[in-house]
Amino acid sequence: QVQLVESGGGLVQAGGSLRLSCAASGRTFTMLGWFCQAPGKEREFLGPIRWSGGITSYVDSVKGRFTISRDNAKNTGYLQMNSLKPEDTAVYYCAAIEPLSSRWSYWGQGTQVTVSS
Q1: Which residues of the chain register pLDDT less than 50?
Q2: How confident is the model over 49-78, as pLDDT tens digits?
Q3: How far apart are CA 104 and CA 27, in angstroms?
Q4: pLDDT number for residue 71
Q5: What are phi and psi of 65, to 5 degrees?
Q6: Nearest-angstrom CA–CA distance, 111 and 114
Q7: DSSP labels, the chain
């Protein structure tokens, strides 16, 4: 079992920044991912981070604005969001892949990000 808790969401002005956190506990995992879901839309995968090594990738919509990172000592992943746009408004989730798996098995509860124009 892996437990994930997101935090750091809130209301921010367009052009501003937020840093989301994903605190992990329980069993070890190999990958952490960030997702978002806007009202009336499908959940969108933003990108993963390898827990060992910290290698990341990003979808085009956030490339250059968002940065995924992690602090192994704190068992916490981060999503740094800069140059926020109203269209970034969504619930943001983190998820984890455990060893020997290829599916996102564990999910946090989500944190709301609202960007005002």
Answers
A1: none
A2: 999 999 999 999 999 999 999 999 999 999
A3: 14
A4: 96
A5: -115, -40
A6: 10
A7: -EEEEEE--EEEETT--EEEEEEEEES--SEEEEEEE-TTS--EEEEEEETTT--B---TTTTTTEEEEEEGGGTEEEEEE-S--GGG-EEEEEEEE-TT--S--EE---EEEEEE-
